[in-house]
Amino acid sequence: FHSDEKVDVKDHEYLYRYLLTIFLVSVCALVKPIEALASSGISSSQNAATELCSFEGIAQRFAEMVDRSRNYPRQLELIAASKAFKVFARKHGLGLDDAQEELKKGEALLQRYLEWNFARVASPETLKKLQEGELRASLMRHGVEVPLGEARQTLKKISAANLKRELLAFPYKSVPEMREAERIIKSIRPFFTHNTNVDPMALELPVVSSRQLRILNGEGGINSQTTFTNGFLKSDNHVFFSVFLKFKDQIDGGRITGYGKNWFSPTDAYAQEWGWISADMMYESDLVAFAKNRTPELWAKIEAELGETSFAKFDAFENHFSGDPRIPQIEEYLERVKKNLWQLDFTVKDFAKLIQNHLLFKLNRLRLEDPGRFEHMMQILNSKFLWPSLPESCVEA
Q1: What tens digit of pLDDT does each residue of 278-326 get?
Q2: Which phi and psi (to 5°) does residue 35 adopt?
Q3: What is the pLDDT of residue 168?
Q4: Which 3 state secondary structure label does DSSP give 278?
Q5: How far, CA to CA in Å, does 262 sit from each of 64, 130, 199, 247, 253?
Q6: HEC-encoded secondary structure of 230-277
Q7: What is the pLDDT of residues 202-261, one digit of tens each?
Q8: What angle do CA 209, 244, 293 make, to 5 degrees?
Q9: How far apart (Å, rounded) are the C-alpha atoms in residues 20 and 194?
Q10: Which residues contact 330 (CB under 8 A, 6 or more apart)?
Q11: What is the Cα–Cα distance from 113 to 108, expressed in whole angstroms?
Q12: Where are the alpha helices (DSSP H) in 258-347?
């Protein structure tokens, strides 16, 4: 971002930076098929296949988790001051002052409040309706017209069209010399992890979006407090998972990332049913990468409105999202960039096809241009040790 280096739009390495998005995911009662809920991210042997299907003891788990981070009093203060807690107290005939004091004394009232709060989305029917609505809103923000009740069908259509376009960008035709590579690549699947630095005990609590957390405690998660995600993208009602690769029968192995050493993953079936894959958009620089790669003409116009140097451009662009008022002309261009995000929206199934094709395309090119490195890459593939070796090496190749 700081350099003036031009991005080769034809070289779609940007496709490797993706997030799986699952809407309003809750592990406790709402989502039963969750794997690897408590792992340090160091050894796959630490994974725990867990199924949580009641809210029993949720207050105790919450208290123990936040107490370890010495954050329990602060969380109780946030909950006591939240709009939701005031509604809860009124609906249960409790005086607000008395309820706030009782909340600090023990877990009984906290248990009742958490049960009441999560009951809003506890039924499968309600959760499905919320997920459908959020998917529709997100696709429309990405520039897609979505009829009511047809969000998932629309995503499948957009994904199929995107897959067709990207396969044309990476034309791969099977040849006898690639049969072994095809056999191996066919068994590669994406898998998804959500990393966190909070205590692993938190993974026994419901997992909800930042916006839903804001309803719970009045403050929300980090994603609720950034103008970029909360204001511009409005993506704070998502739960995000990073996309990695594994072999079909390989046990998922978490990976320590900048987001934390603890991790959990949805099952493949749940991810395919409720998840979708979109461009990684967590920071302003991610939008810059997308604009340079997918809408270079709009990025050129945005650059023209910014400072003369790369550093000045960085400051001006980042400050734009927190500035008041925003720069009108840049705002218009950025909205047009956002309306192009549909170009990188995929179903999990289509994205798996895209990854497999892309790897075969790269490997075949490597076979023709550098047979020695191709043989080395085949040894890596045959070792079935995908992370960290395969994706970075293949992209580099």
Answers
A1: 998 888 888 888 999 999 999 888 888 776 555 556 566 666 776 655 6
A2: -105, 160
A3: 93
A4: strand
A5: 17, 28, 8, 22, 11
A6: HHHHCCCCEEEEEEEEEECCCCCCCCCECCECEEEEECHHHHHHHEEE
A7: 556 677 788 888 888 877 776 667 788 888 888 888 888 888 888 877 765 666 777 777
A8: 85
A9: 9
A10: 302, 305, 306, 317, 320
A11: 9
A12: 268-274, 284-294, 296-305, 310-322, 328-338
Cα separations in angstroms, 272 against 22, 155, 172, 182, 222: 10, 12, 25, 23, 26
Distances (CA, A) of 174 to 164, 169, 178, 179, 182: 17, 16, 7, 8, 8
Query: The pTM is what?
Result: 0.79
Name residues whose C-beta falls within 8 Å of residue 319's C-beta, 6 or more positions apart in sequence. none
For residue 1, give the 3-state DSSP assignment: coil
Chain centre to alpha carbon of residue 104: 34
- Given a contact cutoff of 8 angstroms between Cβ atoms, the answer to whether 75 and 104 are in contact is no
pLDDT per position as a tens digit, 14-61 = 444 466 776 654 333 333 333 333 333 322 222 333 333 456 777 777
Angle at 342 between CA 182 and CA 257, to 5 degrees: 65
Q: State the average pLDDT for the chain.
A: 76
Dig out the tokens for 338 from the structure. 């956002």
141 or 22: whose pLDDT is higher? Answer: 141
Tokens of 223: 């994603």
Q: What is the pLDDT of residue 29?
A: 30
